[in-house]
Specification:
The complex is a heterodimer of chains A (792) and B (236).
Chain A (H helix, E strand, L loop, with lengths): L2 H12 L1 H39 L4 E9 H9 L3 E7 L1 E7 L7 E8 L10 E6 L9 E5 H6 L7 E6 L2 E13 L18 E7 H7 L5 E9 L7 H11 L5 E6 L4 H42 L1 H10 L3 H41 L11 H28 L2 H5 L16 H6 L2 H12 L1 H39 L4 E9 L1 H9 L3 E16 L2 E10 L23 E4 H6 L7 E6 L7 E9 L7 E4 H7 L6 E8 L3 H13 L3 E6 H45 L1 H10 L3 H38 L13 H27 L2 H6 L3
Parallel strand pairs in A: 4-9, 6-8, 14-18, 15-17
Antiparallel strand pairs in A: 1-10, 1-11, 2-10, 3-4, 3-7, 5-8, 6-9, 7-8, 12-19, 12-20, 13-14, 13-16, 13-19, 15-18, 16-17
Chain B lengths: L4 E14 L2 E14 L3 E5 L6 H8 L7 E6 L2 E2 L5 H10 L1 E4 L11 H9 L8 H7 L15 H13 L5 E5 L7 H18 L2 E6 L10 E6 L2 E7 L12
The chains are: A alpha+beta (792), B alpha/beta (236).
């Protein structure tokens, strides 16, 4: 090790706490980059492998019923390489141990194992045996939630008949990485399962001999024709089979959630590090400028001794690089651990055959390069002064800093009122412009990170309240297999424990406005509905239109509609006649994109008098009555699904509360790192620059706390202005993020309550004071007599 | 005993621009420095002696005029050539020693040996200045005289032909100052170094082989000292 490196090492040790604080900022930035980047790689890799393994379909077409032979035409379409017709139905499961009826999706699989589209990955047991017909393979999560194992029997209500099925195995499939039952936003393995049946058995039990109601297809990679075009042609081709929906992979529910999560990770993997590393670079800049100034004479001496500019330059640069390297290395380590944790969390939400945390050397090297680059950028400006310094000039003491009046002094009436202390504070801030800007910038970033984080927390709680307490207020939602008449509502109202029952009619439709098109559905509600209450952006209830639609804002945007416009609605059931319907109201929704109208109006649109596809129930809270209701529901053959919303909301809230606690903790720590590092640095540099001044003040009789008070005032001012800037910055950041996250599936509300700025400001104050305590310690330890005598 | 001229200055000016004012530190300075001599430049502060020292040391550049080192023109050296020159040819000694505070005596000397082509042994350099017992002390643990001796060892350790001393005794008390002078005189006689020493202290000129007196940036007197006094006999 050369002597200069020894000098460097000792200087690094002498400033270890300050440097650790700055390295901490680099660390957080790099850790975010590595953690989110690694999680991104992990998910992408797992997804790609899994989709390949299961031969994931590129599209699916849902139809009423079609002979398999007729479906073959789809395979002939250019770009389509392979298709698989299959049977799919929703059903209910009756498990003795479960009090309530459970929902199930039933899918057909070939009798004999072959590598089909949307294949399954067996986890336990075996594939179907050649002998028995009524065999079933259960999705792993459901089986585990209910202790089902190969060899057990389960009872499913299939085509209105209760069927005993023999479990031969458990499996997972790439279609259900994120497994949602209809109408929920969180996977609920306990209440929703997927059951794979033998094709021959499914045909038999659903009266689908030689027929199917879904086509899965794969496309040639890099095919010139777009998926939408192929699907349009397929829809035309199958017009007679009653096509309900066509779904490209991009719209497949599980894939959509997964892809959006992956995309979001990528965005954050860039955004967070940029914030933190910019702050780190600025802070380093302040420190190194000071260091180079402080060591003027040493620089001159080294040059006089024959060190080249480059050698001296490099020596100072190494100081900054050491900080970058330390932060970078630690950040890589922490990032990897965080990725491990994130991947662990993802395993709760996403089901993969293997979702492992991997080490990506490329990402780590990139992270190191980024942290060193940031350190380099931060060090260059300060260190460059060393280059310019002529040795003879360097040996002379630095010229005194520019004095004179500052701008604020022109506001005479204000300035006159200030005591000497405040005047010193303002002058010091005005004269070290770069340092002040760095301080304000860092505080602004810290405050912005907190503001947008707290806003996200508030948004999450608001979203849950809006969606589950204000918009939809029922306890249980029943879905029927087919459309029913008004008698079904009466029947439901008579069920035990039911306090109120309201009808629901869901109709899948295609909407067209000009060249814009959207596939979705309309929900018909009773005119006096109290269990689903559509609301506007301010959560105020809106009227359910008796003629025309109340459309969710996001859909209105997609279709470019405003109240008063007319939209072409083509129902996929009933008469299927296109109708021109007016948009009357704009509703707000954060989950899904619903369209509401009066149930009688909607019935007429599909050519019925009064139809319903489900009922919403308000139920007595008494557990015994609930149990009685569940027993009844299990017996009802006409029911396709039962959604126990109470349980769902509870589990959702539990999950959210836990996640938010972790999120807030991480957020506050991150913001704290920024505040702390920046303030510590700027105060210590200020202190070092003013050793003489401090010493003089001490001889004049100032105590250490009084001197500390001056520095505290400087820090408080910087934090104050930074926070003032950071609050709106964080707000607009959240607005931008909400906009970029917006989709039909989910929208993020932008909520700003008084709590967010108040908490942000209080925390900013707390961080500033904490950093100040460290500075105060340095003041107490300062050898001010020596400072007074030293020739700077 | 006069050797070959090692430096030759021809009508050298140095002007410092201080804001809007141009300050002429030296004006039309012409002089020669000979190999193996101990030259003392005396003058009050502001007389331009430091400027001359810095120019011949390659720390500063003349505004006008020419400076020769042997037969090479120092004034036309590039920055890289100046660095090489400082590294291999001259050794600097400063009034305030300019030691690196967080390096020990030995390490401060190594600062110079590490970049030198033919360095002296570090310990030997320290023994030459009689600092054997202070090898591992930091500057803050040494007296001013000791620190200056470390600085001399640092300059010596590069094996330079010329030692340039900027008020080497300026920050030292009388006795310590004389010891440092003795050391410099010995270095000249024993090792044959050329030594240029600048001071405002006229008494020190008595130990010189030659004395150049400066005032207001100009040479006012050049005189040879027929019988230099040993440092021990000098008083001030």
């Amino acid at each position: 090790m050369s002597v200069l490196d020894r000098k460097l090492r000792r200087e690094l040790f002498a400033h270890v706490w300050l440097l650790a604080a700055i390295a901490g900022i680099v660390l957080v930035g790099v850790a975010c980059f590595v953690a989110m980047g690694t999680a991104y790689n992990n998910l992408t890799r797992a997804k790609t492998d899994y989709y390949r393994q299961c031969r994931m379909a590129d599209f699916s077409i849902e139809l009423k019923k079609a002979p398999r032979v007729d479906l073959r035409a789809v395979a002939e379409l250019p770009g389509v390489t392979e298709i698989r017709p299959r049977i799919q139905f929703y059903a209910t499961v009756d498990l003795e141990a479960a009090p309530e009826p459970l929902n199930a999706l039933v899918l057909s699989m070939p009798d004999r194992r072959e590598a089909v589209i949307n294949d399954i990955v067996l986890r336990r047991g075996a594939y179907f045996s050649p002998g028995r017909g009524n065999e079933v393979i259960v999705n792993e999560a459901f089986a585990e939630a209910h202790g089902l194992a190969p060899g057990d029997w389960v009872k499913l209500l299939l085509n209105n008949r209760s069927q005993e099925l023999y479990v031969v195995g458990t499996a997972i499939s790439a279609e259900f990485v994120y497994m949602l039952s209809p109408g929920t936003i969180m996977p609920d393995a306990e209440h929703f399962g997927v059951f794979f049946l033998k094709e021959s058995y499914a045909e038999d039990v659903f009266d689908f001999d030689g027929a199917a109601n879904q086509v899965l297809g794969r496309l040639a990679p890099g095919t010139a024709v777009s998926t939408e075009e192929i699907l349009d042609r397929a829809e035309l081709l199958l017009a007679d089979c009653g096509v309900f929906t066509t779904t490209p992979l991009a719209d497949q529910l599980s894939n959509k959630y997964l892809s959006e999560e992956i995309e979001g990770l990528q965005t954050f993997a860039v955004f967070m590090p940029v914030v933190f590393l910019t702050v780190a670079a600025l802070v380093l800049n302040v420190l190194l400028t000071r260091l180079a100034e402080q060591q003027r004479t040493i620089v001159g001496t080294l040059k006089a001794l024959g060190y080249s500019d480059w050698q001296v330059f490099l020596h100072f640069l190494k100081f900054g690089l050491a900080v970058g390297l330390a932060g970078g290395l630690a950040g890589c380590g922490l990032g990897y651990l965080l990725a491990e944790w994130m991947t662990w969390v993802y395993r709760f939400f996403f089901v993969f055959p293997a979702l492992e945390n991997h080490f990506y050397p490329g990402r780590m090297l990139a992270a190191l390069a980024i942290s060193l680059g940031c350190a380099l950028l931060g060090s260059l400006r300060g260190t460059r002064a060393v280059l310019r310094l002529q040795p003879a000039e360097a040996m002379r003491p630095a010229p005194p800093k520019r004095g004179g009046r500052i701008l604020l002094e022109q506001v005479a009436f204000f300035w006159r009122r200030l005591g000497v202390g405040w005047r010193m504070v303002f002058r010091s801030l005005a004269r070290s412009r770069v340092r002040s800007i760095a301080g304000v910038f860092a505080a602004a970033m810290g405050a912005a990170v907190m503001t947008s984080g707290f806003m996200m927390v508030e948004a999450t709680y608001f979203l849950v309240d809006f969606q589950f307490k204000w918009l939809v207020r029922s306890d249980i939602e029943l879905t029927f297999k087919d459309e029913r008449g008004p008698d079904a509502l009466l029947e439901a109202a008579r069920l035990p424990a039911v306090a109120r029952a309201e009808p629901l009619l869901n109709v899948a439709c295609t909407f067209e406005h000009g060249h814009l098109r959207h596939e979705g559905g309309i929900t018909g509600l009773a005119a006096d509905a109290a269990l689903t209450v559509p609301r506007d952006a301010h959560a105020r209830p809106i009227r359910i239109p008796t003629s025309g639609l109340a459309m969710t804002r996001i859909l209105a945007q997609i279709l470019d509609l405003e109240p008063g416009d007319r939209v072409t609605v083509r129902p996929t059931k009933g008469l299927r006649q296109p109708r021109q319907v007016p948009v009357v109201e704009i509703a707000d929704s954060y989950l899904g994109a619903a369209i509401y109208t009066d149930i009688e109006y909607l019935s007429r649109l599909i050519g019925e008098e009064y139809a319903l596809t489900g009922v919403q129930l308000k139920v007595e809270p008494d557990p015994a009555a609930r149990a009685e209701l569940n027993r009844h529901l299990k017996q009802l053959p006409a029911i396709q699904g039962v959604a126990d919303r109470r349980t769902m909301i509870q589990s959702l809230e539990d999950t959210i509360v836990l996640n938010m606690k972790v999120f807030i903790f991480v957020l506050v720590v991150f913001a704290g790192v920024i505040f702390f590092g920046s303030i510590l640095n700027s105060s210590l540099v200020s202190l070092a620059e003013r050793r003489r001044e401090v010493a003089t003040l001490r001889t004049l009789g100032y105590g250490p706390w009084q001197i500390g008070g001056l520095l505290l005032r400087e820090s408080l001012l910087l934090s104050f202005f930074g926070t003032l800037l950071g609050l709106p910055l964080g707000y607009y950041l959240t607005v931008a993020m909400a906009a970029s996250y917006e989709s039909e599936l989910m929208r993020f509300p932008v909520i700003l309550s008084a709590a967010t700025p108040a908490t942000t400001a209080l925390l900013a104050l707390a961080f500033t004071v904490t950093a100040y305590l460290f500075v105060q310690r340095s003041i107490h330890r300062m050898d001010w007599l020596a400072a007074l005598q030293a020739s700077e | 005993m006069k050797g070959q001229p090692i430096f030759r200055l021809e009508s050298v000016d140095r002007v410092f621009q201080m804001g809007e004012v141009a300050v002429r530190a030296i004006e039309g300075v012409s002089l020669e420095i000979f190999e193996g001599e101990l030259l003392v430049m005396v003058g009050p502060s502001g007389s331009g002696k430091s400027t001359i020292l810095n120019i011949i040391g390659g720390l500063d550049k003349a505004t006008a005029g020419r400076v020769f080192f042997g037969d090479r023109e120092l004034t036309s050296f590039t920055a890289a050539e100046l660095t090489r020159y400082r590294r291999d040819t001259v050794g600097f000694i400063f009034q305030f020693y300019n030691l690196v505070p967080n390096l020990t005596a030995r390490e401060n000397v190594m600062v110079s040996t590490e970049i030198s082509r033919q360095p002296m042994d570090v310990d030997e350099a320290l023994r030459l200045v009689q600092l054997e017992e202070r090898f591992d002390h930091f500057p803050s643990q040494m007296s001013g005289g000791e620190q200056q001796r470390v600085a001399i060892a640092r300059a010596l350790a590069k094996n330079p032909a010329i030692l340039l001393c900027d008020e080497p005794t300026g920050a030292l008390d009388f006795t310590t100052g004389k010891r440092v002078l003795r050391l410099l005189v010995d270095l000249k006689t024993r090792l044959g170094k050329t030594i240029v020493l600048i001071t405002h202290n006229g008494a020190i000129a008595q130990v010189a082989d030659r004395v150049i007196r400066l005032r207001s940036g100009q040479v006012v007197e050049v005189r040879e000292n027929a019988r230099p006094l040993p440092p021990e006999e000098v008083t001030w």
